[in-house]
Specification:
Blueprint: H1 4-10, H2 13-44, H3 47-58, H4 61-72, H5 77-100, H6 106-120, H7 122-133, H8 140-151, H9 153-190, H10 206-219, H11 221-251, H12 256-280, H13 286-305, H14 310-337, H15 344-355, H16 358-372, H17 374-395, H18 398-401
Helix pairs in contact: 2-3, 2-7, 2-8, 2-9, 2-11, 3-6, 3-11, 3-16, 4-7, 4-15, 5-6, 5-7, 5-9, 7-8, 7-15, 8-12, 8-14, 9-12, 11-12, 11-13, 11-14, 11-15, 11-16, 11-17, 12-14, 13-14, 13-17, 16-17
């Protein structure tokens, strides 16, 4: 049952609206990602091109991740967030019309993926700081943890909805559905009562902001450990996820709808794991949950790559989802807990940039899939990721030990 602190958060209307906006974004990201992966594989029959779409989606995170954090500190976050939804709705409408006219081509899809990839970089620098500002400072860790827990429900619903729409309505159905969801998201954000923080901070120029952010991160071992695990998991977890639809259709031999169920099983596992974390785990244990969750994702991924049966693959993906929940539900909370308010957007921008390392892993797994096949590529990537995690755990042991995370860490 929710405790008194959780009930007080739920009574906050702005908090609820920002939660919903995040679920809409997350759900559509998962829905469109699955649909595009299947569309590209059906058009080309080549797992490498599927990986390239994921590369295009993630590539903007590196150049735009930290930049969005710097920009967000200078302008009204609510206005910028509405603009994000508007851009994505417009992009989906154009692509939907092209698909309806049977004129949709691979390069059209690639441009849409890239535009949405840029827009998605603002999730950490816009919505999460707004969420943190909507609650009392003492409740930030819990609030962002609940947000991440609910966001995982999009992992469960998005892919199966996307698989179903693609199977019965095609890509035009995917894009027109996206227009409605993004339009609704813009309305939700517009209704949020938000006042830009009035604290005046000396901000000489963008270059100084970049240097200050990197210098602050390097001065805090706990922040470096959070960023290191972020980079490691996103270097290998995102590429592994890109291969699940390919393995489902090509090697397990199931329909798009069942591929959606397979991918959604990860989301269901994430939802179960996130619920357990939200109800049972206190914020002081987030560091341990974060670090061990990364292992819990990669070990089932390794076993999944060795499975030839759908009935075995399904629970393995589910278990990996629980690991993903442990990692994702605590990531932003830990960074916010470790960072003073005036540095939050920039530190979360660094998290987004760390997530942006994923495209390098996508290139890696795409080339391996081309040479050895999708399953073997996942096997190799899983082993690489596990070895990197072991090294990071030895270099930065404070999260594993359960040391307190605070802005003074």
């Amino acid at each position: 049952m929710p405790n008194q602190e959780d009930r007080s958060l739920w009574s906050n209307q702005n908090f609820r609206k920002l939660l919903l906006s995040g679920m809409l974004l997350g759900g559509m990201r998962q829905l469109e990602t699955l649909a595009i992966a299947l569309f590209v594989f059906q058009e080309t029959g080549n797992a490498f091109y599927v990986a390239m779409m994921f590369f295009i989606q993630r590539a903007p995170l590196i150049p735009f991740g930290l930049a969005s954090g710097v920009v967000a500190d200078r302008f009204n976050r609510k206005t910028m967030f509405i603009l994000v939804f508007t851009i994505m709705a417009t992009t989906a409408a154009v692509l939907g019309i092209l698909a309806l006219q049977d004129r949709l081509q691979m390069w059209h899809v690639g441009i849409g993926v890239f535009i949405n990839g840029i827009a998605m970089t603002t999730e950490f620098s816009l919505r999460k700081p707004m969420l943190a500002e909507s609650v009392h400072s003492a409740k930030v860790g819990r609030a962002v943890g609940l947000d991440a827990a609910l966001l995982t429900s999009s992992l469960a619903l998005g892919p199966v909805i996307g698989g179903g729409i693609l199977q019965f309505l095609g890509m035009q159905g995917i894009y027109f559905f996206a227009v409605g969801v993004y339009g609704f998201g813009a309305i939700i954000v517009y209704s949020v009562k938000y006042k830009r923080p009035t604290t005046v901070v000396s901000r000489p120029n963008f270059a100084a902001d970049f240097r200050a952010a990197i210098g602050f991160a390097r001065s805090r071992r706990v922040i470096m450990s959070i960023l290191a695990i972020t980079i490691i998991l996103d270097l290998w977890s995102t590429p592994i996820r890109s291969m699940i639809p390919v393995i489902g259709e090509n090697e397990l031999g199931v329909s798009p709808l069942l591929v959606g169920v397979l991918v959604s099983s990860q989301g269901i596992g994430a939802l179960v794991g996130a619920a357990i974390i939200a109800l049972k785990v206190v914020p002081r244990r987030f560091g341990q949950v974060y670090q061990y969750g990364a292992f819990l994702y990669l070990v089932p991924a390794l076993l999944f790559s060795l499975s030839n049966w759908y009935a075995v693959s399904l629970p393995l993906i589910f278990l990996g989802g629980m690991g993903l929940a442990a990692f994702s539900t605590t990531q932003a909370s830990l960074m916010l807990m470790a960072t003073p308010p005036e540095m939050r957007s920039r530190m979360l921008g660094l998290v987004a940039a760390g997530i942006g390392i994923g495209p390098l892993g996508i290139l890696n797994i795409g080339l391996m899939a081309r040479l050895f096949g999708a399953s073997s590529a996942v096997t190799i990537a899983s082993i690489e990721g596990l070895l990197a995690l072991v090294v990071a755990t030895l270099i930065w042991p404070m999260l594993r030990r359960g040391e307190e995370v605070s802005a003074a860490s």
